[in-house]
């Protein structure tokens, strides 16, 4: 969000479609600048991956690896080095996803006076760590793909083993056995969502800054799916234990930052108000936004209960594994709901940007809400269920790190 909370952000300036078109649809210059800026960050990530790989390797060699308790055939660290490197990239990818989501929440949440990190620096770090996270996720999947080709348990010819490995690793739902049927599907959905949602910033000239910012808020879903994938399939956290509990505990700061972001939003349009800027009643929107905040409160309390009780869903070495849940159809249904919500948000904002000049003038008058539904009948009733639910889901997710087109362009340069 913008600067101090004492001053409300200015209403967003919507660029005419013709201007956006002349500036180009994709900000390649900004992406190249961020890729150059991500070199130190990516180098640090590779160093962290190397350290994690060394730690995993030593534990395999001395017989203390949790993974070899689950899969004893992997006890030869030299033979299965690609698998262990795959695990190392998975853990560094989760670490960088954690870092980038924290940067995003710090940037978009309330700005206490004691905070010393400049906003522009947080914005830059959020973008570069996002790019690094996507690269780490890809390398995690690619090394698993390479290991399946190398291992070739079914003694397939070269072409067939490459195709089979590709389907197992990169096609959602392609992995057909064991816990991987669900866990790998979750990981792939997280990866494939991270690319458009993470890179939406560089398409802001084509979509408009309000649209890309609203879509980028859904990026928190990527992080949730990544943690879920880890807890479900990570062999280092397969069994109950202190390390698995630690992974759960580390989610509490993220949930707390998200809750703070929702309880004290800097943008006036996101505050809990029963009436809009024109004094129109909008109880449905208030209900959805309040429900989002209560859901985050419940999440924080749930995480606290898991950490205190130690009941975190892990397996026991000598006990029966719990039944696999959810089924794939539940995940696909959730993805469909997410897609419909994101599409509804994008559609509403695109129609809002194409509103006639008199509607834009009403939005920009003193005291008007920057995101208020001032587009008249073209957008339908302000409190229609479909529109309200899509908006509220977007508002309940963390805001993107940049506020204004001018600020975005300046930082990209």
From TrEMBL:
It holds the Pfam family Ferric_reduct. Residues 90-226 form the Ferric oxidoreductase domain. It is a multi-pass membrane protein. Its main location: membrane. This is Iron reductase. The chain crosses the membrane at residues 42-60, 80-106, 127-146, 182-203, 215-234, 246-263, 290-309, 329-349. InterPro entries: Fe3_Rdtase_TM_dom (IPR013130). Keywords: Membrane, Transmembrane, Transmembrane helix. Residues 367-385 have a biased composition (Low complexity). It is found in: Membrane. It comes from Streptomyces lycii. Residues 1-15 have a biased composition (Basic and acidic residues). It comes from the Bacteria. Residues 1-25, 356-413 are annotated as: Disordered. The keyword Transmembrane helix applies. The keyword Transmembrane applies.
């Amino acid at each position: 969000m913008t600067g101090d909370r004492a001053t409300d952000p200015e209403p967003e300036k919507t660029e005419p479609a013709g201007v956006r078109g002349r500036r180009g649809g994709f900000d390649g210059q900004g992406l190249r600048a961020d890729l150059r800026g991500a070199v130190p960050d990516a180098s640090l990530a590779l160093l962290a991956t190397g350290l994690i790989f060394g730690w995993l390797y030593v534990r395999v060699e001395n017989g203390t690896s949790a993974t070899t308790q689950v899969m004893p055939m992997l006890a030869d660290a030299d033979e299965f080095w690609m698998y262990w490197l795959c695990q190392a990239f998975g853990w560094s990818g989760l670490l960088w996803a954690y870092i980038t989501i924290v940067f995003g929440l710090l940037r978009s949440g309330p700005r206490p006076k004691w905070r010393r990190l400049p906003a522009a620096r947080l914005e830059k770090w959020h973008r570069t760590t996002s790019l690094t996270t996507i690269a780490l996720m890809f390398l995690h999947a690619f090394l698993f793909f390479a290991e399946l080709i190398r291992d070739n348990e079914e003694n397939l010819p070269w072409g067939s083993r490459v195709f089979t490995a590709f389907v197992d690793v990169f096609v959602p739902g392609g992995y057909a056995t064991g816990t991987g049927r669900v866990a790998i599907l979750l990981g792939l959905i997280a990866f494939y969502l991270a690319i458009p949602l993470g890179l939406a910033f560089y398409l802001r000239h084509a979509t408009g800054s309000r649209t890309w910012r609203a879509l980028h808020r859904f990026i928190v879903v990527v992080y949730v799916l990544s943690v879920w994938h880890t807890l479900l399939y990570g062999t280092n956290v397969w069994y109950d234990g202190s390390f698995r509990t630690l992974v759960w505990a580390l989610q509490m700061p993220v949930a707390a930052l998200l809750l703070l972001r929702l309880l004290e939003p800097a943008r006036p349009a996101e505050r809990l108000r029963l009436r809009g800027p024109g004094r129109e009643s909008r109880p449905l929107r208030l209900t959805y936004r309040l429900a989002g905040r209560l859901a985050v409160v419940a999440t924080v309390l749930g995480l606290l209960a898991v950490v205190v009780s130690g009941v975190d869903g892990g397996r026991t070495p000598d006990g029966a594994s719990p039944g696999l849940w959810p089924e794939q159809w539940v995940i696909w249904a959730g993805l469909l709901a997410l897609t419909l919500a994101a599409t509804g948000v994008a559609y509403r904002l695109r129609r809002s940007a194409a509103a006639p000049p008199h509607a834009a003038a009403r939005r920009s008058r003193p005291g008007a809400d920057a995101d208020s539904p001032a587009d008249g009948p073209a957008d339908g009733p302000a409190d229609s269920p479909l529109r309200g639910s899509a908006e509220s889901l977007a508002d309940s997710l963390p805001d993107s790190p940049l506020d204004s087109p001018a600020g975005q362009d300046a930082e990209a340069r």
